[in-house]
């Protein structure tokens, strides 16, 4: 989107760039950008509209995550201002301020990288997640999955379900509060979820994966190579493999695994996106995507026995933990830790209701834990309690 040609045009015409963030079906955004473009001051800028859902890497770098937002950049990609207002008069006044500053020589502030120093994760974070759930923090699907597992192990927590506040209808579905949900999303992250829970055909997901393991952001096929999409698709394919024992899905997951390692690796975690332009060159180790990557790598290790994948899982969750204390991130870290530290391998195909269980050809019995075979899952204690 922020192409070399666009940057060249900005420099040639000596104009700042206004990046207006919109979203699918955002009527307020459509009306606002129309009014902004009609302002006389807007003629002194180039304005690009960007769908923040399709291009979250730009949203992460140029905003606080709010839509609509108008971010102003110099031709050298210095950030000159971020306007979150929907008041056209206020926007006009701020644009005048910014443009005047630009022609007086102000080129903006250099965009910062986000590279948190990794922090070792302890098991105590599971209590932070449970505290957030009990405090009615809006729970996404990983928080719900985590809660259901913990409450199955420690029955005292099952009483807390009535205070859980679902983030969306996906969470309501997992809690059993909705029997059916609309599974018609165009985005890979949601298609992956629907595939995991049998609400969409796996073929819908496979159409979004390239031969080299690169994953498209959506069915639009405009953007690709985002960590969150790679690992969500990877997790869906691992689940599909375990439920069918069809090696095709494991081979797809391996392609995704290889793509991430070869293209998104950073010494302190994993980049949020493939480098495509000057903005995506700025390193951003997004915590939620890294925490989800922790789950993918932990599962890939459990299923294939690839020891390096366990190391990648630890790197991803330590990066995520350093970057955010959001309960959604902590829930994913907790799930990854459970798989790394309390893994139970099985020779029976899925689906599995216990987060500790993963299929492995190495398992020669129903449940294999630390080299010992078990016939009943209840015989295996979890180290968290």
From TrEMBL:
SUPFAM superfamilies xref list: Six-hairpin glycosidases, Thioredoxin-like
GO BP terms, alphabetized: carbohydrate metabolic process
Xref: Gene3D superfamilies: 1.50.10.20
InterPro entries referenced in this protein's UniProt entry, alphabetically: 6-hairpin_glycosidase_sf, Thioredoxin-like_sf
Stated name of the protein: Thioredoxin
Organism whose genome encodes this protein: Acidianus hospitalis (strain W1)
């Amino acid at each position: 989107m922020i192409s070399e040609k666009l940057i060249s045009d900005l420099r040639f015409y000596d104009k700042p760039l206004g990046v207006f963030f919109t979203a699918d079906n955002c009527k307020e955004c459509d009306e606002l950008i129309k009014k902004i473009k009609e302002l006389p001051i807007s003629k002194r800028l180039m304005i690009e509209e960007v769908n923040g859902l399709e291009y979250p890497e730009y949203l992460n770098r140029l905003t606080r995550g709010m839509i609509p937002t108008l971010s102003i950049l110099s031709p050298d990609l210095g950030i000159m201002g971020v306007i979150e207002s929907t008041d056209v008069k206020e926007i006009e006044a701020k644009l005048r301020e910014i443009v005047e500053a630009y022609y007086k020589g102000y080129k903006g502030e250099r965009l910062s990288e986000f590279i948190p120093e990794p922090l070792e994760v302890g098991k105590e974070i599971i209590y932070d997640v449970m505290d957030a759930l009990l405090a009615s923090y809006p729970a996404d699907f990983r928080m719900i999955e985590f809660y259901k597992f913990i409450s199955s192990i420690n029955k005292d927590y099952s009483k807390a379900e009535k205070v859980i506040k679902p983030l969306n209808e996906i969470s309501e579905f997992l809690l059993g509060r909705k029997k059916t949900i609309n599974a018609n999303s165009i985005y890979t992250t949601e298609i992956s979820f629907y595939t995991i829970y049998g609400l969409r055909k796996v073929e819908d997901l496979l159409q979004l994966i390239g031969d080299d393991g690169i994953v498209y952001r959506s069915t639009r096929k405009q953007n690709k190579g985002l960590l969150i999409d790679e690992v969500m698709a990877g997790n869906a394919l691992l689940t599909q493999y375990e439920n069918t024992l069809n090696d095709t899905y494991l081979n797809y997951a391996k392609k995704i695994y290889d793509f991430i390692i070869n293209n998104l690796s950073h010494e302190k975690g994993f980049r949020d996106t493939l480098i495509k332009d000057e903005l995506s060159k700025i390193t951003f180790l997004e915590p939620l995507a890294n925490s989800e990557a922790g789950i993918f790598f932990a599962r890939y290790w459990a299923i294939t026995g690839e020891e390096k994948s366990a190391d990648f899982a630890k790197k991803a969750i330590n990066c995520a933990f350093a970057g955010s204390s959001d309960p959604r991130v902590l829930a994913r870290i907790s799930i990854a830790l459970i798989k790394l530290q309390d893994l139970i391998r099985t020779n029976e195909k899925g689906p599995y209701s216990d987060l500790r269980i993963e299929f492995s050809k190495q398992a020669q019995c129903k449940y294999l834990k630390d080299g010992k075979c078990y016939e009943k899952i209840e015989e295996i204690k979890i180290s968290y309690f």
